Amino acid sequence: MSSETGEDRTLRVKDVRKAWPRADGGRRVVLDAVSFELEAGGTLCVVGGSGSGKTTLLHILSGITAPDAGSVSLGREDLTAMSESGRDRFRARHIGYMFQTFNLVGMLSAVENVALPLVFGGASPSAAKHRAGVLLERLSMSDRADQRPAALSVGEQQRVALARAVVADPWLILADEPTASLDPRNAADALALLESEATRTGASLVIVTHDPAVRGRYARHLVIGDGS
Ligand SMILES: Nc1ncnc2c1ncn2[C@@H]1O[C@H](COP(=O)(O)OP(=O)(O)OP(=O)(O)O)[C@@H](O)[C@H]1O
Ligand SMILES: [Mg+2]
Fold first, then answer.
1. How confident is the model over 39-64, as pLDDT tens digits?
2. Which of 102, 146, 156, 198 is within CB 3.0–4.6 Å of 152 for a Cys-Cys bond?
């Protein structure tokens, strides 16, 4: 399916395989021939036990980790065929990643962290901070916007990470346990923001979750475990 502008933005995952080395010298197969397609604007919920490979899959979808075999493409762009620098540029422009461990920049305030992808994309720092501030306001974070991550609670850091993942209108939003540290009201606000930003920009959304309430919100699930 195409986006409003006619660009093909379908996420196509074909026969992706990944094994990690084990301490005993063997290899543990984490992803064994994972294939799916997600049309522009669609949402896929990824579920599976701890250690089943959910974060590994998101890393592969974003090009941070290379699969052992198989391919990942977004629209006409094949991430698995790009050079490393080409993949880094593509990720910065088109993929918003909300990390399970947040990966916020400790030296920057919350609003500066959220503004970062816009500044990388060439926006003026003041315009970028304004847009970042609007998103933080929608997550009830206005009064925390000037604090550095170390002064924020884990749930507040999680909301900063979410805002940073959506701020630059990515084609694909990858969210790893986006509500894990949030109370039910903030969790609902966070999911509503993810969904509304995805709808506004026509982005596809891949959400990893352990939470049955999150899982129940979405019709399409990918269950991973035992390498399958
Ligand atoms: N860089 C790595 N080197 C070796 N093994 C790894 C590496 N990254 C992940 N693994 C292993 O791969 C398996 C899957 O890890 P992954 O982080 O993808 O799980 P997960 O489903 O996200 O788990 P959780 O729900 O706890 O976040 C685990 O057994 C983990 O130890
Ligand atoms: Mg994980």
1. 999 999 999 999 999 999 999 999 99
2. 156
Ligand nearest to the CA of 99: 2
Q: What is the pTM of this model?
A: 0.94
Tens digits of residue pLDDT in 112-129:
999 999 999 999 999 999
Positive or negative, the CA dihedral 186, 188, 191, 192 is: negative
Indicate if ligand 1 lies below 6 Å from the C-beta of 54: yes
Mutation pick for ligand 1 pocket among 16, 32, 54 (CB with most ligand atoms within 8 Å): 54
Q: Are 64 and 78 in contact (CB under 8 A)?
A: no
Instruction: Give domain status of residue 42, yes or no.
Output: yes
Total domains in the fold of the chain: 1
The CATH number given to whatever domain includes residue 209 is 3.40.50.300
Instruction: Read off the pLDDT of residues 166-205 as tens digits, 9 standing for 90 and up.
Output: 999 999 999 999 999 999 999 998 999 999 999 998 999 9
Shortest-distance ligand to the CA of residue 46: 1
Strands (E), the chain: 11-21, 27-38, 43-47, 69-74, 77-78, 95-98, 172-176, 204-208, 221-223
Cα three-residue angle 179-213-98, rounded to 5 degrees: 25
Domain assignment present for residue 228? The answer is no
Whether residue 7 has pLDDT greater than 60: yes
Domain extent, residue 127, equals 11-223
Q: Which of the four pLDDT bands, split at 50, 70 and 90, describes residue 31?
A: very high
